[in-house]
Specification:
439 residues; 11 strands; Rossmann fold; single chain
Length: 439
């Protein structure tokens, strides 16, 4: 029986930051669409960047031979971009104009929450149910990706790319832990993860890092540069009590956004300008890469330690860009094949005539999640999936970290030993680090 989309055109594009497995999705979408359903597949280069300019040339017809060769490779054969076509109605009109001129019948977007919203806006205007004034009709679905694992998919379902990023991040961190032990110093590792601490926690836990700090653990408490660095100082002093002069601290980059511009200015004043520029992207996010958060933490730690008479050598390391375009590990290679297959399966289904969806798999079964159920109308983004700090998994992670605890400050012998590494008396030490011990 011939497919209902036989001879139709499917467009595919990638938005947001890279993630291991993008080529796996492109490959499986293309192979399934061509071989099973007799469709033609058009790959749009660099997300919506050229589409908002009305360009009909920044694309190419994808073949089975081309995508099969890239299936297990990192990066994206279609590139990627953070262009937001929904920011201006004129931009969206250009996008839809290109789709109409190129006779696009189906669209697969691959990306995070911003790209999901962009895809949903295409669906809102020209989905089969939208009754577009000019008769334009495009079935739309989105394949969610991010190494941050912060999209609100069903419980236990990761975003593709996360497991690969965690794998390589863990290997790097283990190597740095060996270097820290060999050289007698501390590493401050900044892990990607703007909205949630999944990647930092996953790397820290799997690499047995000394301490991992994520925004979620502060719960309703205000996050400051002082509170973050005091957590690390507490770990440093406790390690000294164990006769260990080295360690590894893994921090989620989202801490810098939680501290915020006001918090950074309050702690650093005019010194902030020495660490980069405060800029925002098209979606309103702080360009975290523009600020050297690791160096900020390192220098502020040295300053805070000097004030209490402690000297420690630090190396700061940003961990993220080298993880985003790595070759996918077997988990993501298999997972992205499922997702690409599932995307095409949804598009050829009757359901795609009634709504656009985000593709998800639960227990091996493809579950399409309606755009309107997943994207907040006010924020225009999916709700971030945070680390559950009440879970057994988080409690286990924290249990194996080295942190100051309330008992360290109420036990006179431990308190005296900890304070002896500083120029503080026991009462002042307990007062200073009391808030840290209660996080």
């Amino acid at each position: 029986m011939a497919s209902s989309l036989q001879g139709k055109r499917l467009g595919i594009l990638v938005g947001g930051g890279p993630a291991p497995g993008i080529n796996g999705v492109i490959s499986s979408v293309t192979i399934e669409a061509i071989i099973t359903h007799g469709m033609e597949v058009v790959g749009f280069q660099n997300g919506f960047r050229h589409l908002v300019q009305g360009s009909t040339t920044a694309n190419r017809i994808l073949t089975v031979e081309e995508v099969a060769a890239s299936y297990l490779r990192g990066g994206s054969i279609l590139g990627t971009a953070r262009t937001n076509p929904a920011k201006k109605e004129a931009d969206m009109a250009q996008v839809l104009g290109v789709f109409k001129e190129m006779k696009i019948d189906c669209l697969v977007t691959v990306g995070g929450d911003d790209t999901a919203f962009s895809g949903s806006q295409v669906a809102k205007r020209v989905g089969p149910w939208a009754n577009s004034p000019d008769g334009q009709s495009i079935r739309v679905c989105h394949v969610p990706k991010t190494i941050d694992n912060d999209l609100p998919l069903p419980e236990g379902t990761p975003t593709f790319g996360f497991e690969t990023a965690r794998h390589y991040g863990t290997l790097t961190t283990r190597a740095l832990h060996a270097d820290a032990k060999t050289t007698g110093r501390w590493y401050i590792i900044i892990s990607m993860g703007r909205a949630a601490g999944h990647l930092a926690l996953g790397i820290g836990k799997a690499s047995a890092s000394t301490i991992t700090i994520i925004p979620e653990e502060f719960r309703t408490k205000t996050i400051t540069l002082e509170s973050v660095t005091d957590l690390i100082i507490g770990a440093i002093l406790k390690r000294k009590m164990m006769e260990r002069d080295y360690g590894v601290a893994v921090l989620a980059e989202g801490l810098i956004e939680s501290i915020g511009e006001k918090g950074l200015v309050s702690a650093l004043g005019d010194e902030l300008k020495h660490y980069g520029r405060i800029e925002r992207d098209d979606h309103g996010h702080l360009r975290l890469g523009e600020l050297e958060f690791g160096r900020i933490i390192k220098d502020f730690l040295k300053k805070r330690l000097k004030e209490i008479g402690v000297k420690v050598d630090f190396i700061d390391k940003d961990l993220g860009y080298e993880l985003r375009s790595a070759d996918p590990i077997p988990f993501d290679a298999e997972y992205t094949r499922d997702l690409g297959y599932g995307a095409v399966r949804f598009l050829v289904s009757e359901a795609s005539k009634n709504y656009g969806a985000i593709i998800s798999f639960v227990d091996g079964k493809m579950i399409p999640l309606k755009f309107e159920d997943m994207i907040d109308k006010e924020t225009q983004r999916m709700r971030a999936r945070k680390v559950n700090v009440e879970s057994e998994s988080f409690m286990c992670a924290k249990r194996y970290m080295v942190r100051l605890e309330s008992g360290d400050l109420t036990d006179a012998k431990k308190l005296k030993a900890l304070a002896s590494f500083t120029n503080l008396d026991t009462a002042t030490f307990a007062e200073r680090f009391g808030p840290t011990a209660n996080i």
